[in-house]
Amino acid sequence: MAFRLDALEHPIVQAPLSGGPSTPALAAAVCEAGGLGFLATGYKTVDAAAADIAELRSLTDRPFGVNLFAPPAPVADPEAVARYAAALGEGAGEPRHHDDAWEAKLDLLARERVTIASFTFGCPTDAVIGALHDAGCTVWVTVTTAAEARHAASVGADALVVQGVEAGGHRGSFDDDAPGEIGLLALLQLVRATVDLPLVATGGLATGAAVAAVLAAGAAAAGLGSAFMLAPEAATSAAHAGALRGSRPTALTRAFTGRLARGIENSFMAEHEATAPRAYPDVHYVTAPLRAAARERGDAEAINLWAGQAYELAPRDEPAGDMVRRLSAEARAALRDAAGRLGA
């Protein structure tokens, strides 16, 4: 039987947060509080992903999700990637193009019979979704347009993560050459009008009132990412955490990974956005050593500072479980207030 979002005590979903912040401790804290925690497998080996699943199961017996990156499209211009790497100079890595162990990670999710298998950067085929269903997994797909939502529904997705352009991190679009750049409230309405599936709304949500807003607009749950990044259970780097405590604006960029993503503006983004090619994950591997060295020295000007547009509202150092309970209570209060203003 597919996992039902209305089984959650609190309609709060923790985004997978690939690239560092995701930890079993964070996912477990959200699950134990009555929300839904997620693990990220992006950039991890299959063994590392399996170890995370085992650790999470040692911390909670509640349902949780695991996210996979769909395989990337071929790079249109490899020479542009080579030029970009050369321009970055000494310390840049070699471009690599691969599918992040797609088949092996699919096998892992099926073998482990994880409650929810979610997908970003594309939609699995109906055969892949069918195999996961046979293994007892519920399948979620991230969408950024109504057309993507219709396609995901047509191949058997059980629920959709509706990602507004406000969201931090990578756009979840199926095609990075034509990414969905629609605000969350508008997108939620468009998707709800075109498919009859449970929807998880995500992008720029950091308060109980924002959770209430998307629930009122028809979402079954609210997905939050940046809001959890300063929780003590998250493994957000010190430099990234420092930036999240600031107030600089965010922007969309391909400078760090070759795929469109939202982060806090910094020097690297300003210097390299204009020349960054559309080439994921090749550019990710070109810049990875530079970013790793910058994190080590605490240089926030040279790393990707993924953050949603409302990141300034993220709670500071609040335990993830407390955050889930507080946001849910605040959402209930906001909905009561709204009903009062309507004369209900």
Verbal overview:
The protein is α/β, with parallel strands linked by helices and 344 residues long. The chain has a domain at 5-75 and 99-238 and 316-341: TIM Barrel, CATH 3.20.20.70. The chain has 12 helices and 11 strands. It has helices spanning 24-32, 46-59, 78-88, 102-112, 126-134, 146-154, 184-194, 208-216, 238-244, 267-272, 282-297, 320-341; strands spanning 12-14, 38-40, 65-69, 116-120, 138-143, 159-163, 169-170, 199-202, 221-224, 250-253, 261-264. α6 links the parallel β5 (138-143) and β6 (159-163). It is globular. The two termini are 36 Å apart.
Brief overview:
This protein has twelve helices and eleven strands. By secondary structure, it is α/β, with parallel strands linked by helices.
Which range does the strand content fall in?
A: 5-15%
Instruction: Supply the helix-strand structural class.
Output: alpha/beta
- CATH-defined superfamily of the domain at 5-75 and 99-238 and 316-341: Aldolase class I
Order of helices and strands: EHEHEHHEHEHEEHEHEHEEHHH
Tell me the name of the CATH class of the domain at 5-75 and 99-238 and 316-341: Alpha Beta
Strand order of the largest sheet: 1-9-8-6-5-4-3-2
List how many beta strands DSSP finds: 11
At the fold tier of CATH, the topology name of the domain at 5-75 and 99-238 and 316-341 is TIM Barrel
Number of helices: 12
Helix content: 25-40%
Morphology: globular
CATH architectural label of the domain at 5-75 and 99-238 and 316-341: Alpha-Beta Barrel
What is the C-alpha radius of gyration, as a whole number of Å? 19 Å
Alpha carbon gap, first and last residue? 36 Å
Report the average pLDDT across residues.
97
